[in-house]
Amino acid sequence: xxxxxxxxxxxxxxxxxxxxxxxxxxxxxxxxxxxxxxxxxxxxxxxxxxxxxxxxxxxxxxxxxxxxxxxxxxxxxxxxxxxxxxxxxxxxxxxxxxxxxxxxxxxxxxxxxxxxxxxxxxxxxxxxxxxxxxxxxxxxxxxxxxxxxxxxxxxxxxxxxxxxxxxxxxxxxxxxxxxxxxxxxxxxxxxxxxxxxxxxxxxxxxxxxxxxxxxxxxxxxxxxxxxxxxxxxxxxxxxxxxxxxxxxxxxxxxxxxxxxxxxxxxxxxxxxxxxxxxxxxxxxxxxxxxxxxxxxxxxxxxxxxxxxxxxxxxxxxxxxxxxxxxxxxxxxxxxx
Length: 336
What we know:
Blueprint: E1 7-13, E2 24-29, E3 37-46, H1 50-56, E4 65-66, E5 70-78, E6 90-94, E7 102-106, E8 113-115, H2 122-128, H3 132-141, E9 153-156, H4 162-173, E10 177-182, H5 185-193, E11 198-201, H6 207-214, E12 220-225, H7 232-238, E13 239-247, E14 269-271, H8 282-297, E15 305-310, H9 314-322, E16 329-333
Parallel strand pairs: 9-10, 9-12, 10-11, 12-13, 13-14, 15-16
Antiparallel strand pairs: 1-2, 1-4, 3-5, 3-7, 3-16, 5-6, 6-8
Helix pairs in contact: 3-4, 6-7
């Protein structure tokens, strides 16, 4: 095993800003592990919109802040108390600070770390280092905050995005009628091919009017809204009586404060779930991670990595993602 260096290349910011210019590709200390931790040398790290929330200051972050939420790689060191993993294990995992050559992770519980096959290929590293955040988000969200049922009408915003594509497939597979929104007809075609029953161009169509048309005036049983401020009112008005509003993102900005009494006329439930709350025990982690892998390996869930960037080029990936110019998943290749 190659000696572990003292410094590494990372992507970080030292001050918050919506401007991408605060992002830095620079040398940074390799983390030292405790007796309970493992050190992973990363191969690939998935790009997720949540990084923009930390960079802009919408979500709190201690600086200097190394970005990233998921990755794949090889265990290169372990603490004395770690029994689940050994040096040389190939893994994919969820953790902060993965836009880096090395990341330290708690290794005592096995939660949010997935062992890969000993003969895992580069393609395996790429796929599994990129799918966990969005795949597990989609899988838990169609079961936990709202259990999608056959015959349900589901409104899904940004259906051609990373989470959107997976939610479309999973909801359609459960027998739901997915009403997909996207900003272009080309993106809507992607959603249609993945199982969406109805399409709404969010750039030109009246979302609420279209939803009422598709549901004979009743509205949808649930809405999945990762856009936030720009779509909140349309999502709210599109719900049927006893509908469920799942708000899980802020790509257009944070949802403004609103009066809780607005929920009463139609007995609406509103939730703000996060993936970690559904995978916080060994049992739930094993359940959902195994189910996700099975769906992918059996060809029941299509996951598309549309572009791979070098770690140093993350600012370009972020610009393309935040300008809504992308579909599917973006991934970073970590220098070795």
